[in-house]
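YM 10:42: Probable transporter MCH1 sequence, as discussed on the call
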Amino acid sequence: MATASPSDQTLVPLLRSPSTSTLGPASSTNSLRDASPDPMRRRKTRFLQILSFVSAVLSALCAGSITVFSLYAPRFQSRLHFSQFQINGIASAMSLSMYIPVPLIGYLCDRVGPGPLSLLAVVLLAGGYGSAAALYHKGEVASRTAGPDSSQGLVPYMIVAFVLIGVGTASMYLGSITTCAKNFGKSKYRGLILTAPMASFGLSGILVSQFGSHFLYEVLPDGSRGEVNVFYFFIFLAILLSVAGLFGSVALRIIDEDDLIDGAVEELERSGLLDGSELFRRTTSGRTYGAIDGAIDNAEDAGILGPLKDDEDDEDNALLKKTWLLNAETRRFLTDHTMWWFALGFWLIIGPGEAFINNLGTIIGTLYSPGATDDNTTAATHVSIVAATSTVARLLTGSLSDLVSPTPQNQYPQTGMNSQILPPRRRCTVSRAILMLIAGLLLSIGTLILASGFIQGHGDRFWLVSGFIGAGYGAVFSLTPILVTIIWGVENFGTNFGIVAVFPAIGSTMWGLIYSADYQNGARNSPSVTDGADDDVFCYGQQCYSSTFWAMTASIWVGCFMILWAWKGRDGWTKRGVVI
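YM 10:58: structure's back
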């Protein structure tokens, strides 16, 4: 480690707090137990940590209600007389709004914290579901009194409502997983802890769909229970998410964030990437390794560091240091070519899963002949199956990643030189990349079964499709943020994961449109429910979906190859010495 010259001493307050030495022992920032010798402070830190974890799980549990779109989407078709293209337009707008703003949301979360994001989510979700409830009620009344076509003008407004729902969900969900990633990045069970809010997000589908089906249902003329009452269901979600968001605005916080930033600077200094005034400068050999594979410009090039004034206080210095570090890590993340292979693979794998979940209800409707009513399976049943298998898969993969996968010694970005492995708890280790590939193949089994026509006319077999797709989808979504934290560190997690999370929106929209075109084309050759019914609205038979799901299967396999290339390909993670 080179010694800084006297002229470089002005950088010291910015690089580390007065209480943290970059030449101190490696364990100085490795555990919350070592954060302070004061027992009272340690207990308070632990309490705040647990409170933030509980709030994160609760926020994710409520935010996952967005996954039950298939529960009420068929009602848009039957009650409001929206076409399949219009329904997929609403679903696509929801998906896009849930993913496209995520880099900005993650950027804000890293810099202002998850609490303000949770408060923003309250406004968006309450407004979105409240507006959707009012629009649905208005459209239902109009369809009954003025004819089926009278509700068509509500489609643009419904799209706006679901855009608000998507952005609000993203804010609440990303705030919850960012809280867990940063607060528990030092834990040896960080994979399982990070998986907890993600599993809760999946579990929400079971709880919300079953609650809606059993307590918020319509009463049929004979007094029996009908489908979910969409108006009351939307009102319920608006209230539930408002309560969870208000609690999160107070309880979601990053504990000892200054120590996290100090530790990142310390680790980079220890790795040889921080040398005197040449901050994150290229090593003398001209090459670095790992997920950070290039040099970070010096402080002056970053446009943030400047001559420090004698009267600057520690808070201002800490803010400048944090901003500089996060901006530098964002640049390195975007210029890492393995990130792009990984993100593209994630897009090709998760897009078919997203489209299946959004269109599950209409897919089930294609399995039976017109007028068939005996033992028909329901969308609510399979929304619950997808949610259950997704939840189990998330918890299982999170646990396996802790127990059988190699783990680096700290939570900071891996540079090859700092990628030492913690003592293994098992003799045999399995890379997280292998777990990711297995998850993708599970998802492809579900799409392959559906594409083959094995389910057509046999709704009792549909659990195979929803089970495999739910398990694969949940495992992929669990492993993706874990890999982001393992390879690129936790201090800039919100921004990094937000960038990767944009890609499912593209996949969901693309496959939703492809499925809609396939469905509408098949509808022209499908019999109607009754004479004179609109054959351009309903579709029956294998021709409604088969081509789409064959293409989805191929997409998933290509996505798996891309992740394999990021891992084992030219200058991939293995070649760089990255521990995954």
